[in-house]
Amino acid sequence: MKISSLQLNNLPDKPGVYFFKKEKNILYVGKATSLRDRVKSYFGDDLDFRRGLKIVKMVQGATAIDWKQTDSVLEALILEANLIKKFLPEANTLGKDNKSYNHVIITDEDYPRVILVREHDLKYQESLGFNIKYQFGPFPHALQLKEALKIVRKIFPFRGEKDGLNLKEVGLRKIKSVRKSNLNVELGLSPDFSVVSRNDYKKTIRNIKMFFEGKKNFLLKKLEAEMKQFIKGQEFERAGQIKNQLFALSHIQDIALLKEQNISNSGRIEAYDVAHTSETNKVGVMVVINGGVLETSEYRKFNIRQKGGGDVGALREILGRRFEHTEWPLPKLIVVDGGKAQKNIAEKVLTEFGFKIAVVAATKDERHRVRGFLGNPDIILKNERDILLANSESHRFAIRFHKQKRKKDLLG
């Protein structure tokens, strides 16, 4: 590796986007709350545990690191998505295998909505129920993207997915949707179209478009010019509104994004679950979450071979087959669905393979809702959010795989 310690030490302790490069080719694009801390983390001894073989090879093959500092984590999030889409770096599986990631969509309507749509759903645009005017993404960090939209919406109130135009229109919908729509107007998150004109709302949509295109500086100049025009025309109330937007854009408060970045730095977590109907069509799955991100390309399905043995026997088979794959990166934490029996069998398999990996079991109530955890309390406290996400995703994935297998058997 030809990356010097001087390059690492020159990185700022600020948010932004970083690039691993080989000569002039961009190998990988990532975002960071602290560019210095994030990039230095790639040079620790446990990188292969945390990020996997592809990233290890990428770091070893890189000859330079470059970066672009941003004013906020929110802007780093947007810039990362734009650059992945532009360069399609080889090591960014997020930019190529993005079926589980989200896009920000601005609909093609008289009063456009700004909504999140999953990559998979975009493949079937005819069933979306709306036409697409503008599309941004993919964004790999779903929870951060939702927080980002909340920040943008406070600056530029927009019509959301279920927001109506007026009481007559939304009155045809369910009462809950009506209340939510009205509440968004009252909170200043959605425009009151009895006051806001169609042309003014079009300006708002153009502003949102520019922001997601990464043109914040141009947007600031545009808004400043508009504010001066309103002052010149003695429309001081409207000038004041733009002044507030200028201030908000220049002082973006993305504390929620900083928090999300911090709690999602737990490394690779693997979660396992089993699904069957009275011991028939029994299947198991492994899902992976890495740094708070669901790594769908690393999910695995297992058709259970042994007869009988219940969920515990199936879990033993799954883990045994999984750890035969020495080419797969090792997790720092394993999450199993069940109780003490599942936790014990997982630890027994790990011992047989000579691994010391923490195991957490998610115990459920009669409605299959998590009621508690079994495992090291410190590990659970530190990783609770990711443990819940991994367990929920493994259950969803297992049920889906089981239904597919059952349907296939029914069809012969």
From TrEMBL:
<dbReference type="GO" id="GO:0009381">
    <property type="term" value="F:excinuclease ABC activity"/>
</dbReference>
<feature type="domain" description="UVR">
    <location>
        <begin position="217"/>
        <end position="252"/>
    </location>
</feature>
<dbReference type="InterPro" id="IPR001943">
    <property type="entry name" value="UVR_dom"/>
</dbReference>
<dbReference type="GO" id="GO:0009380">
    <property type="term" value="C:excinuclease repair complex"/>
</dbReference>
<dbReference type="Pfam" id="PF08459">
    <property type="entry name" value="UvrC_RNaseH_dom"/>
</dbReference>
<dbReference type="Pfam" id="PF02151">
    <property type="entry name" value="UVR"/>
</dbReference>
<dbReference type="InterPro" id="IPR035901">
    <property type="entry name" value="GIY-YIG_endonuc_sf"/>
</dbReference>
<dbReference type="InterPro" id="IPR038476">
    <property type="entry name" value="UvrC_RNase_H_dom_sf"/>
</dbReference>
<protein>
    <recommendedName>
        <fullName>Excinuclease ABC subunit C</fullName>
    </recommendedName>
</protein>
<dbReference type="InterPro" id="IPR047296">
    <property type="entry name" value="GIY-YIG_UvrC_Cho"/>
</dbReference>
<dbReference type="InterPro" id="IPR050066">
    <property type="entry name" value="UvrABC_protein_C"/>
</dbReference>
<dbReference type="InterPro" id="IPR036876">
    <property type="entry name" value="UVR_dom_sf"/>
</dbReference>
<dbReference type="GO" id="GO:0006289">
    <property type="term" value="P:nucleotide-excision repair"/>
</dbReference>
<feature type="domain" description="UvrC family homology region profile">
    <location>
        <begin position="207"/>
        <end position="350"/>
    </location>
</feature>
<dbReference type="InterPro" id="IPR001162">
    <property type="entry name" value="UvrC_RNase_H_dom"/>
</dbReference>
<dbReference type="InterPro" id="IPR000305">
    <property type="entry name" value="GIY-YIG_endonuc"/>
</dbReference>
<feature type="domain" description="GIY-YIG">
    <location>
        <begin position="13"/>
        <end position="93"/>
    </location>
</feature>
